Amino acid sequence: MENNKKSVSGIYDFASVLVSAIIAVAFIFTFLFKISSVNGPSMMDSFNNGDRVVITATGYQPKYGDVVIISQPNQYNEVLIKRIIAVGGQTVDVDASAGTVTVDGKVLYEPYIREQTLTPGNMNFPLTVPDGYVFVMGDNRNHSTDSRYKSIGLIDERYIMGKAFYRVGDKTLLPSYGVSYE
User: Catalytic annotation on 82?
Assistant: First the structure.
């Protein structure tokens, strides 16, 4: 009889630990972190199609250089992954003939891009980003539909799901780029 009580107690303890672990994981991935997939070539060579990234889900404040996951409705009807180029109050200019992007009159130093920016998009530049919005671009500039195009446009900060900080699979923490000029 005592063995049965120990057995039932052991099963109860195991079930209790298992349920607690499931609840903890659900809480973490609902409120603190999320996993998202990269779809398409717009972030190459930083990210490839199918890569999975872990993103922060709470308390994120957008800043230049961050790779973010965006849920703002768009022509593709899908979540986007892009890099923040400018935040509210900053002025962006894309000079496709020179292959450069400037923010507040200074050419950005962008070691993460695949190639120079040779496609201007269909927005009117220079463009001042309103408060509460960000201007985003893909790292594969000539194969990315991003804030240079009216179909995506400026991103309302409320639609930023979080900052990508870890690549699943190759277990890589993602570098953070501060503002840097040529």
Answer: yes
Which residue among 16, 20, 34, 42 is the active-site one? 42
Rounded Cα gap, residues 146 and 81, in angstroms: 10
Q: From 137, 159, 147, 167, select the one nearest 50 (Cα to Cα).
A: 167
List the catalytic residue out of 16, 63, 71, 82: 82
**CA torsion through residues 130, 133, 134, 136, sign:** negative
Q: Is 42 a catalytic residue?
A: yes
| Each residue's pLDDT tens digit, 135-171 | 999 999 999 999 999 999 999 999 999 998 888 877 6
149-152 long-range contacts, Cβ below 8 Å, gap at least 24? 149/121, 149/122, 149/123, 150/122, 150/123, 151/74, 151/75, 152/74, 152/75, 152/80
| pLDDT per residue as tens digits for the range 47-61 | 888 888 888 877 789
Whole-prediction pTM: 0.80
